[in-house]
Input
Amino acid sequence: MNCTENGREPMIQVDGVSTWFGDFQALKHVTMDVAAGERVVVCGPSGSGKSTLIRCINGLERHQEGEIRVDGTLLAQSRKSIDSVRSKIGMVFQQFNLFPHLSVLGNLMLGPVRSKGMTRQDARAMAMRFLERVRIPEQADKFPRQLSGGQQQRVAIARSLCMEPKIMLFDEPTSALDPEMINEVLEVITELAESGMTMICVTHEMGFARRVADRMVFMDHGEIVEMAKPDKFFTKPESRRCIDFLDKILHH
Amino acid sequence: MNRPHRRITACVLAAAAMTLAGCSQQWGWYVVNPATPSGLTNLKFLIGGLQQTVLLSLTAISISVVAGLAIALPGLAPSRLLRGFNRVFVEVVRAVPILVLILWVYYGMPQIMNVSINVFWAGVIALALSDSAFEAEIFRAGIQSIDKGQYEAAHSVSLNYRDTMWFVILPQAIRRILPALGNQLVYMLKMSSLVSVIGMQELTRKANELVVTEYRPLEIYTVLVLEYLVLILLVSAGVRWLERRLQADQGS
Output
């Protein structure tokens, strides 16, 4: 909320957003700004609306009330505004959602070639660059099912980066991984964070959050309950619900 | 195997052997014996229908696969009107027996359209129309079986609807429905025999005509059975080969 002190327009503005799934209200009047280059980590119990929030930001779910602006563009119902917003945002999913019938390179090149009109040659060069960045260039010609979960998620991150987004959204990127593969994915995300990418990451990895986040957001029952800098968030949380939650996930 | 079972099996085998041996009658294989000039002519006459059967079936299935997809897509649309069109088409066309459709197209349609239609195209239209309803249901099931995450990943790399379908959803759906599509091709080859009733010179019609002149239905129809059997075994092998090819494409 107080991230605009540098006077610049925030990269993401979420203003009074509510959304319902049938009778269930998944988001209740959520308001939050994210500045350019800011790293926000969102946590909270399951069903608290944290995934719904980031899915609303790139138009995967519709919000029924309130306004969302991304890099100055209002996210409306029109095809054009949704297209404009999603072209600025990369999204990484819990289940990777790689295209199983395409090779790693095919996964990375499809978006740039089809939606940006890039030549195959340029797209391939860019794909290889990002594969090197996520440290698996040698897997370029393999298919997703031949890779480990950690490798698949790194391919998914590279696929998003190939669209050259201004913002990256991570929806529990390590929740579907075996424990020994969590770190290789978190390292890649940490490097990305250090490069100045604006990002919102939904995760339960609190060690990672403490290292990377500029700001912590705690959600429960569709509301933002607590929003603070990490040192304050982890040492002196204010709300009862946040204290209980941190208690549960930090001491198990 | 216990005793009564063995006795029943023996009886069945004996009955089959007696039938094939012609029981009291003599088999008249001379009618299609390639070693004699008239037998060879008859055999060539029978096999002469092969081209028409194959051409008719392949033309009809090509049209019905494309039409089936075009009818399946509205069935998956959010619009109730489009879904209604899909339902009505599938239910009505599926309810008409193929033979009835062939008669209606060949004898009935020229009266309203005021053009005569040749037997080949009447057959193609009737078979394709009838099959398209089944293809539509197969495509709908295949497309619906693809995980929602694939659409979301396509959305996140900015693919439009057409590209999402063409490059992400259909390639996966077609792999899954390939056995069912193979089934439809086999079914089509068999149903093409019905077009013999309007005088199309395909396998069954040729056999019928030869039976009238030679009066050896047993031998001639046995050859006919074998013709269909060989044709369909070849198609089955082809479909299985294609399945293996496409599986190998995914690196497994």
User: Anything to note?
Assistant: Chain B touches chain A through 21 residues (CB under 8 Å).
